Amino acid sequence: MKEIILDTETTGLSVKDGHRIVEIGCIELEDLVPTKNIFHCYLNPERRVSESALKVHGYTDEFLSDKKKFKDIAEEFLNFVKGKKIIIHNAEFDISHLNNELKLINKETLPRELIVDTLEIARNKFPGSSISLDALCKRFRVDNSRREKHTALIDCELLSKVYINLLDQKEPVFKFQIDEKKNKKVARGKTNYSKKIIEISQKELQDHKEFLNRNLKKNFFN
Predict the structure, then answer these.
(1) 63: CB partners within 8 A, 6+ apart
(2) How far apart are the C-alpha atoms of 111 and 100, rounded to whole Å?
(3) Is this model's pTM higher than 0.70 or not?
(4) Is 19 a catalytic residue?
(5) List 19, 97, 150, 208, catalytic entry
(6) Alpha carbon distance 103, 128 (integer Å)
(7) CB 195: neighbour CB atoms within 10 A?
(8) Are strands 85-88 and 2-10 parallel, antiparallel or unpaired?
(9) Tens-binned pLDDT, residue by residue, of the chain (222 aa)
(10) Domains in the chain, ordered, with CATH?
(11) Pairing state of beta strands 184-187 and 85-88?
(12) Three-class secondary structure of residue 4 per DSSP
């Protein structure tokens, strides 16, 4: 199953005040394991960045002035997330901004049924506790030392690890299939994870004993 970890940065909090997206970051997961597929872009929001937002992500008007506009990357973005679950921390914020951008260029909005909000998962799992991304990183011992500013790709990377922990999946889950020829379970990708038992011959055992007696003055194997 493929999923998308998604994060955005914006010029300010509310679309009602005309705020726009300045960065989109996406990391693809397959069976909870990050693939090499990412989507990332900075955007010219066609308006000034608020002072409060600048303190959060650090993207200045000058830095964003020569970047592409949302309409220039919309098709590529939509193709990247098409048909996949989208995992977001505090999804209401990001989806309201993304759907606002899509409406501005007369594109179909992202369906809510494909959105998974890790904030809601954490709220149900740890009622009464702090459930910010930083707090969850601390709870699950995820190293967030690189998060000096809120940047989309770093936040996606952290959220991918937090998400796995929220699902109580400490390690990636392999989906096994039956290899009909060998009648063994093998992981997808034809990698055989079954154990192979090698019998030790009497000669090898005797050689080992002689080696220990000959080379070790004192040993605990005999």
Answers:
(1) 42
(2) 13
(3) yes
(4) no
(5) 150
(6) 36
(7) 5
(8) parallel
(9) 899 999 999 999 999 999 999 999 999 999 999 999 999 999 999 999 999 999 999 999 999 999 999 999 999 999 999 999 999 999 999 999 999 999 999 999 999 999 999 999 999 999 999 999 999 999 999 999 988 888 999 999 999 999 999 998 664 545 555 455 544 444 444 445 444 567 778 888 888 778 777 766 555 445
(10) 2-166 (3.30.420.10), 179-215 (no CATH)
(11) unpaired
(12) strand
Grouping H, G, I as helix, E, B as strand and the rest as coil, residue 96 is helix
Residue 30 contacts residue 47 (beta carbons within 8 Å): no
Q: Which tokens belong to 30?
A: 């397959």
Tokens for 164, please give them.
């796995």
Q: Return the closest-CA partner of residue 138 out of 161, 172, 118.
A: 161
Per-residue CA distances from 96 to 27, 44, 91, 143, 184 (Å): 20, 18, 8, 29, 48
> On the CB side of 115, how many CA atoms lie within 13 Å of its CA?
20
